[in-house]
Design brief:
The structure holds 2 protein chains of 2 kinds. In chain A, helix 4 (69-101) packs parallel to helix 7 (147-154), helix 4 (69-101) packs antiparallel against helix 11 (200-216) and helix 9 (174-182) runs antiparallel to helix 10. The longest helix of chain A has 33 residues, at 69-101. Chain A is built from 14 helices and no strands. Chain A has helices spanning 7-38, 42-46, 60-67, 69-101, 108-120, 125-141, 147-154, 159-170, 174-182, 187-198, 200-216, 219-224, 235-248, 262-293. Chain A is globular and about 75 Å long. The longest helix of chain B has 26 residues, at 212-237. Chain B is flat. Chain B has 2 domains: 9-64, no CATH class; 105-315 and 320-345, MetI-like fold, CATH 1.10.3720.10. In chain B, helix 5 packs antiparallel against helix 16 and helix 16 (304-313) runs antiparallel to helix 17 (321-345). Chain B has a two-stranded antiparallel ribbon with strand order 1-2. By secondary structure, chain B is mainly alpha-helical. The chains are: A mainly alpha, B mainly alpha. Chains A and B meet through helix 1, helix 4, helix 5, helix 6 and helix 9 of A and strand 2, helix 2, helix 3, helix 6 and helix 7 of B.
Chain lengths: 299, 350
Amino acid sequence: MKRRLEVSELIFKILAYTLLTAFAICCLYPFVYAISSAISGRDVVDNNEIILLPKDIQFAAFAEIFKNNAFWISYANTLFLTFYGTVFSLFVAILGGYALSKKRLLFRKGFNFILVFTMWFSAGVVPQYLNYKKTLTVFNSIGIQDTKWMIVIAMGMAAMNIILLRNAFEGVPSEIEEAAIVDGATELQVLTKVYVPMSKSTIATVGLFFGISRWNGYYWAQRMIPANHSFEWPLQVYIRRYLEDNIWNSDQGAINVEVYSLNSIVYTMVICAIIPILIIYPYIQKYFAKGVNMGGVKE
Amino acid sequence: MKFQLDEHIKLDQETNQYVMDKEQVVRDNVEKDHWKIVLRTILKDWRLYLMLVPMLFIFICWRYLPMYELLTAFKSNLNGAAVSASDQYFNGFANFQTVLFGGYSSKFWMAFRNTFVLSFYGLLFGFPVPIVIALFFNEIKSNAYRSVLQVLTYLPKFISIVVMTTLVWLLLSGANTVVGGSAGVVAQLLAKLGLVEKEVTEAGMMYNAQYFRPVYIISGIWEGAGYGSIVYFAAVIAINPTSYEAAQIDGAGKMAQMRYVVLPAMLSTIVIMLIVRIGSLLSIGYEQVILLKTTYTEVTAQVVSTLALDWQESGLAFSTVPEFVNNITSMVLVIGANLISKKATDTSLY
């Protein structure tokens, strides 16, 4: 027997559909707007006449970006930081998480506390800055002049991600490990041949957490890279600098003779910055949902 | 037991970790060799301990050594210029005196209040939204349409903070903000709806201190609400459908079902998330603030960490003090929230 829909239920359903659809449109709109503005003509963009669809279509802003070497250097820097940063952080976190997952580890509580305490208390931005500055001096003194490596090694670790991995490794049945040891596997083989394959989805999730935060990293890169090293800027720093220098502090007297507005250049950069994420997004989305749900912290 | 540890080490059932077996140690009369036993155990299992080394190195160098810099909070030199943690002039709590009650107190308390207000409003308005979104997702029975909505609403979370704030700037203040005279497309809409005065939007909303808080909070909700709903939605879909049917047979309407079926199922998730949020009540995302604030909006936008950075850049001796005070308070909050929830609901985060 089909149940009659009650009035309260119907109202709730209608609310759910309309409000969620409206929110989803709000989430999508800025991106559509960015694309439209990137390919619209100078005057309509400068006068904020675009609402949804592009007007006076031009592709000169895109062409300009494709010719802009500094932009692509910053893009390459971001790819470098994302790749090496993710690999390095993941490597450290897998080793640490694996060791912490072992009950036989002495002082296990103490090691865990070292991680968890950083989630409760942080020294703050200024001490962190002073510390990074000293790190940079140390790195320079041992011959690493490139700030990139300092960013890869010193930044981006998160206690939460190690705890996620630890919890996943704890979930692997110890019988499997014992069987592997009986078969003569060493500690490292147990990790790479048993634990890593059995926790693939968690490792993927944590890798994505690291990857996204590396791709999006802004403040410390902007702060730590010396002013005369603009060739080391990652993408996010480049976009922000462009906005600050050419849009806000530009010489308003200068007349823009191009067919595109300078804002279109910014919109084009924004689009270039989010395209890689949009491409991998459908594949990673399910992992993220999984990773967030594993997030419960326990001692 | 596969791993033969030292005979003096046993599993403590209570804490579920391996510790020194005190009775065995006394029996064998090897109290003096306590550390030798520990060392022997570690050496036998050195591969496992070696794996911890990179992680510990990173945490000590870049999470704990910064705490050493906090010593500057207790030091100063005679001319009041910036000091380093290794300087030797301790001056007790004089720096705290200056920041909390002295000449810089008005700036500090303004920043402290702004931090608190921003995160409090963020909690008040931002916390319920993901819960409501999760409940709404549960109402959408078409899987395809729900997936589309999920993909779209999670999307902003993956956009970098720079891109997000850039879009906020351009959509609100529009092009040519320096000259003024033309508002961004969203600002135009707000003016048409009568939510914001037209003159304000044309002068650039981002330059108006009155609008910093709403802009910060709404852009935060826009970015994180969809993604934040994932945990709640997982709790909602875990509910057994028969629970709804049983409630319906008992005559429960939609609201009663919400109250007696859905809410209890979500409660532990809600409590955990609330602890996290209360714990981070004073640790506001400084990147978003730095990227959204201007010199015109400092009255509402200056938070503790940006104030500390400003002071550090101007070479003031006590630039570590504001965050020190802030983060200690924050730690008390998170531990307190955790304790209360452990007592009240048996749910705890740590």
